[in-house]
Amino acid sequence: MKQNMVCDIYSGICTSSDDNTIETIDFNFDTPKLTLYYVTDPMCSHCWAFEPILNKLLVQYSTVIYLIFKWSWVDY
């Protein structure tokens, strides 16, 4: 008989279990992407200073954020 492993998410301790009623957690849920419009000006020094923060945001949340760059507010 195959033994199930039960892990406590708070302590990280895993033990074997004979209980057949184990709760599973699905981490592959389908989340809608957030569309983020970034309006920038290539001549703006503040916009260039914000670039490292924007890149970090995209790296950490690339699965849930879709970024659209706009060079002018007139495009709307």
Count of individual beta strands: 4
pLDDT < 50 runs, ≥5 residues: none
The string of secondary-structure elements, in order, is: EEEHE
| CATH domain topology | Glutaredoxin
Q: How far from one another are the termini?
A: 63 Å
Strand residues, percent: 25-35%
Global Rg: 22 Å
Class by helix and strand content?
alpha+beta
Across the major sheet, the strand order is 1-2
- Give the quaternary arrangement of the chains: single chain
Helix content: 10-25%
**CATH class identity:** Alpha Beta
Organism: Staphylococcus saprophyticus
InterPro entries: Thioredoxin-like_sf
Protein name: DsbA family protein
What does this molecule look like?
With 76 residues, the protein is of the alpha+beta class. It has one domain: Glutaredoxin. Helix content is 21%, strand content 26%. The chain has one helix at residues 45-60, and strands spanning 4-7, 14-17, 34-39, 65-70. Strands 1-2 form a two-stranded antiparallel sheet. β1 and β2 (14-17) form a beta hairpin. The longest helix has 16 residues, at 45-60. The radius of gyration is 22 Å and the shape is elongated. InterPro entries: Thioredoxin-like_sf. This is DsbA family protein.
